[in-house]
Design a protein that fits this description.
Blueprint: H1 6-37, E1 65-72, H2 77-80, E2 82-89, E3 97-101, H3 103-108, E4 114-118, E5 131-137, H4 141-154, H5 169-179, E6 203-205, E7 211-216, E8 220-225, E9 229-234, E10 237-242, E11 247-250, E12 254-256
Antiparallel strand pairs: 1-2, 1-5, 2-3, 3-4, 6-7, 7-8, 8-9, 9-10, 10-11, 11-12
């Protein structure tokens, strides 16, 4: 004779299995897409570090420019995530200044991971093609550049680098986004470390400052914003939907839709 108490338990177990299978299937899908797109066969000594020809030529562009770049991380890390950096050029300047966190500098350099200096803004990241995700130009951008510089010098983890879950290069870029709302910075789901909050709390504005997020050391959290849409972070892996850009967000694969990265 069937136990009347077993039926609800069976339904509960099926629902729990479904909630486990769906995210695992999404991770697998993201992995397949990522592995198909990105090569990890690179030697840092010979990898391409030349300009990708994306940034405007300062000799031809007098106006102030701010650009935020992403590129797949070096070696096997590129399957999972991206490296991000910020490039600025004030009005009339002859060169770009690049702001970024470089992990090896914290361990083998001068002990400071934060690197600020004149450089090619659109340099390939050890062979990986960069992509612009924020571009500001013209009147008022000089004020934005001054805000970026001031925020970068206030960054609380300038001497620290942790690949996962942060603080890393994406933590820095997300921090700048929160400090400089003019960027409206919508970092991709592959920017692992962006959800590591730097204010000592589990609650903060989203990197675009068009919403808010709750995050536990970048390992578990939820984000909702006009620019980012809705994101759920589990162990640094981001799942989400972006109604504004008609896209879904998957771990490793990134944004799938009209604006893929």
């Amino acid at each position: 004779m069937e136990n009347p108490q077993e039926q609800p338990q069976v339904r509960y177990r099926k629902k729990m299995r479904l909630w486990l299978v769906i995210p695992l299937a999404l991770v697998l899908l993201g992995a397949i897409i990522s592995f198909g797109r990105h090569s990890v066969m690179a030697d840092w000594r010979t990898a391409n570090r030349e300009s990708a020809g994306i940034a405007p030529d300062p000799a031809m562009t007098s106006e102030a420019v701010v650009q935020v770049y992403i590129a797949r991380a070096f070696s096997w890390r590129g399957w999972f995530g991206v490296h991000t950096w910020i490039a600025t050029k004030p009005t009339g300047a002859e060169n770009f200044t690049v702001y970024q966190i470089v992990g090896w500098r914290a361990y083998h350099g001068d002990g400071t991971a934060l690197v600020i200096g004149e450089s090619l803004p659109d340099r390939r990241w050890f062979g990986a093609e960069p992509q612009v995700i924020s571009d500001l130009r013209g009147p008022g951008v000089d004020d934005v550049i001054r805000s970026i510089d001031a925020a970068a010098h206030r960054y609380p983890y300038a001497k620290d680098y942790v690949l996962w879950p942060g603080p890393n290069s994406n933590t820095f870029t997300a921090y700048i986004g929160r400090e400089v709302p003019e960027l409206k910075l919508d970092l991709p789901p592959t920017a692992i470390g962006k959800d590591f909050l730097t204010n000592g709390s589990i609650f903060d504005a989203s990197p675009s400052r068009t919403g808010y997020q709750v995050s536990l050391y970048g390992l578990l959290g939820v984000l909702a914003g006009v620019e980012e849409g809705l994101e759920v972070n589990v162990l640094g892996l981001t799942f989400g939907v972006d109604p504004k850009d008609f896209a879904i967000k998957l771990p490793m694969a990134g944004r799938i839709g009209f604006q893929e990265n």
